[in-house]
Design goal:
Elements: E1 3-8, E2 11-16, H1 38-52, E3 58-61, H2 68-76, E4 81-85, H3 89-101, E5 107-109, H4 113-119, E6 126-129, H5 139-145, E7 150-156, H6 159-162, H7 167-174, H8 184-201, E8 205-215, E9 218-227, H9 229-236, E10 239-244, E11 249-251, E12 260-264, H10 271-280, H11 285-294, E13 302-303, H12 304-311, H13 318-327, E14 332-335, E15 338-344, H14 348-357
Parallel strand pairs: 3-4, 3-6, 4-5, 6-7
Antiparallel strand pairs: 1-2, 7-9, 8-9, 10-11, 10-12, 13-15, 14-15
Helix pairs in contact: 1-2, 1-10, 8-9, 10-11
Length: about 350
């Protein structure tokens, strides 16, 4: 295995030689380092600093590969107890060498994440699930064996499945019917969370999304999970089917074949955690501001290009549309899911009226 030295965050690592390019990668070696997921890890560090602060917690980087995430958690946060696990013996050996290179005291485990969780039930307050592809094979045990009100960070890189390119595969894996339309990225994220809520509910556990987003070629959600059958039922009430039209949507009935989902229709963010992350001050203010503006707004969004096409009118400037909505006492914000998207609580009729007024 040919190694090269890289810097990420505050750590220096020896990792397998790799292409420093954007986009999805292919796993070719037992030990895997993906530079395009650096922002995923940057956000993880900011989130953990904001959530756990100085509290003593146990953290598991469950599918570590090169170990970069777990080593950064140990180096860059106040969290003292970090376990870094990977099934590959070569990966475990490299993680130990990189820990020594950075003078970091971490626990290194060589096991499948399933076996590790079965042997360490309820020990961890944060479990990171970052697989290549779908988290479906790994998430259920993490949800079952996280400590009460602990957090599971879940990544899904099978975006084409969740966004509706392969609807049969999506239904098979996530038990939801996707929709490949202008909302595809929000649809995919909400299908992922719906799946996570259903799996947790099997064990009488509830989920609360604290931070959920789409970036580049992956979905990511940080879920607080706790015990309680009644709260689990309340979570399931937030799983709804949706009927999409050409440029708008409405909640649909279970029996209508044209409806999609179910989707998670609850919040994607905790405004409190976003405020704490803002205080940490390590992420782009633009990104955090966008998430904060989206927080609390209803699910899904309008694409200004779609509406303009239906009206056969050029789209007004985004700022003008948002200002007009707010002047009429509606809520409105840009969305990170699509540059031409607007999240708002306005009806399609009122939205068209604002377009025509401009």
């Amino acid at each position: 295995m040919d190694l090269t030295e890289i810097e990420e965050g505050n750590v220096v690592l020896s990792v397998p030689e790799h292409e420093d390019s954007e986009g999805p990668k292919e796993v070719r070696d037992e030990v895997f380092y993906n530079p395009s997921m650096r922002i995923n890890r940057d956000i993880c560090i900011s989130f953990l600093k904001a959530w756990f602060d100085e509290k003593r917690v146990n953290v598991l980087d469950g599918m570590a590969a090169s170990g970069v995430r777990g080593l950064r958690i140990k180096k860059e946060t106040s969290i003292s107890d970090v376990t870094i696990n990977d099934l590959s013996e070569k990966a475990a050996e490299l993680i130990e060498k990189n820990a020594e290179k950075n003078s970091l005291d971490v626990e290194v485990s060589k096991d499948s994440i399933e076996k590790h969780l079965l042997n360490n039930r309820y020990e961890y307050d944060y479990i990171d699930i970052d697989p290549f592809g779908s988290p479906v094979p790994y998430y259920p045990l993490a949800a079952r064996y996280i400590s009460h009100e602990g957090i599971v960070g879940v990544t899904a890189t099978d975006t084409s499945v969740l966004c509706g390119t392969y609807p049969t595969t999506c239904f098979r894996k996530y038990s939801s019917e996707p929709k490949n339309n202008w909302c595809r990225h929000e649809n995919g994220l909400r299908i992922l969370i719906a799946y996570c809520a259903r799996e947790a509910a099997r064990y009488d556990k509830w989920v609360k999304p604290l931070l959920s987003y789409y970036e580049g070629h992956h979905f990511r959600t940080y879920l607080q999970i706790g015990d309680g059958a009644q709260k689990a039922d309340e979570c399931l009430d937030k799983l709804n089917r949706i009927r999409f039209y050409d440029h708008w949507w409405e909640e649909g009935s279970a029996g209508d074949e044209k409806n999609c989902g179910p989707f998670w229709t609850g919040d994607l963010y905790s405004e409190k955690i976003l405020e704490q992350m803002e205080k940490v001050g390590e992420l782009s203010e633009k990104l955090l501001s966008l998430w904060k503006n989206e927080a609390g707004l209803p699910p899904f969004f309008y694409d200004t290009n779609e509406i303009s096409s239906s009206l056969k009118e050029a789209p007004p400037p985004m700022k003008d549309i948002i200002d007009s909505l707010k002047e009429k006492s509606f809520k409105a914000s840009k969305t990170h899911f699509l540059p031409t998207g607007i999240k708002t609580d306005v009806s399609i009729e009122d939205m068209k009226e604002i377009f025509l007024d401009h």
